[in-house]
Amino acid sequence: MIEIRNVSQRFAGPTGWVEALHNVNLTVPPGEVFGIIGRSGAGKSTLVRTINLLTRPTEGDIVVNGRTLTSLAPAALREARREIGMIFQHFNLLSSRTVFDNVALPLELAGMKHAQIEEAVLPLLELVGLAAQKDRYPSQISGGQKQRVGIARALASKPKVLLSDEATSALDPETTRSILDLLRKINRELNLTIVMITHQMEVIKQVCDRVAVLEAGRVVETGPVIDVFLQPRHEVTRALLGDVIAQELPPALKARVAERLTKGRGHLLRLAFTDTGVDQPVLSETIRRFELDFTILHGQIDEIQGRPFGSLAVLAGGDPVKVAQAMNWLREQGVVVEELSHVE
Ligand SMILES: Nc1ncnc2c1ncn2[C@@H]1O[C@H](COP(=O)(O)OP(=O)(O)OP(=O)(O)O)[C@@H](O)[C@H]1O
Ligand SMILES: [Mg+2]
After folding, report:
1. Ligand 1 touching residue 199 (CB < 6 A)
2. Residue whose CB lies within 8 A of the most ligand 1 atoms, among 7, 9, 10, 11, for a mutation test
3. Distance 217 CA to ligand 1 centre (A)
4. Domain range enclosing 277
5. pLDDT tens digit string along 256-277?
6. pTM for the structure as a whole
7. What is the count of structural domains for the chain?
8. 242 domain residue, yes or no
9. Number of Cβ within a 10 Å radius of residue 143
10. Looking at the domain assignment, is residue 291 inside a domain?
11. Which atom belonging to ligand 1 lies closest to the Cα atom of 47?
12. Rounded to an integer, what distance in angstroms lies between the CA atom of residue 218 and that of residue 44?
């Protein structure tokens, strides 16, 4: 469990103080993959660096597995940090060391004997799928393989928490997926708590249980990933979600719909749903019950953490009173209904 309590971080900038984090409060439950997403400059790297006190917060406390890191003496802090591994966007491998020796480094530094090191490193290389590449140098392996080395190295000191700062940002989508699958596997098999920093909602969708959205140093939204996808509340969240789910109609389609709407009556609705909407004929029942026409304009059915997730933009035609009743009824069925625009 990680608790970030009232954390603020100020830096001296050329024109005065920069407040990189403002009173951040977050709790990461043990064994979860917790995503922190935000635009460039939102404070993500600053926040993740405060978790292991690479950057000491100006105010507030960091509690990891019950220990308040911010009040530990240097020796105890060094000890506590061994429980927190970290992986990076650019892998940070030593080019003069082989794959094996990169993973062995933290153990050498901790004074472990050669035989024990071998005993510890080989299973880690198996775990990340690099046993056959153990004698290669970083220049002789791919980006995805480099990140696997980074992960194995982070796991060498048997951490309970893994921090990941944009670990897949330098990788192509397919390699990203394989690294995210590996992180999920490690999370499950080792019961490791993972904090993932990213600017990509796709990463959140693929591996995270819970997400916090950071904007200008503040947490503007947090919750289980499926809830945030169903009903994003903050404008930044919506903007970030724009890459993975249809929030709005494409502009050309919107113009055509607006033109059609001005000639008649209609409501442009966004429907978002999970299990109910996918397993049951909610839409067709709505149409029958309230004698409406639904034109599906845009949408997708997808899966988030094994749960179905759908998002549709529909043009609802018919008696406005019945449209309003239908919206209420859909909400009672667990569908998130939002009016995108409305022309009488
Ligand atoms: N050591 C520092 N000294 C001064 N300002 C800093 C320092 N580190 C970060 N900042 C400032 O704090 C703010 C947050 O930076 P941070 O690197 O945490 O953002 P980020 O969300 O990780 O962005 P990106 O997605 O681009 O990596 C920025 O305005 C940045 O310029
Ligand atoms: Mg960053």
Report:
1. yes
2. 11
3. 9
4. 251-343
5. 777 777 766 688 888 998 887 6
6. 0.90
7. 2
8. no
9. 16
10. yes
11. 18
12. 10
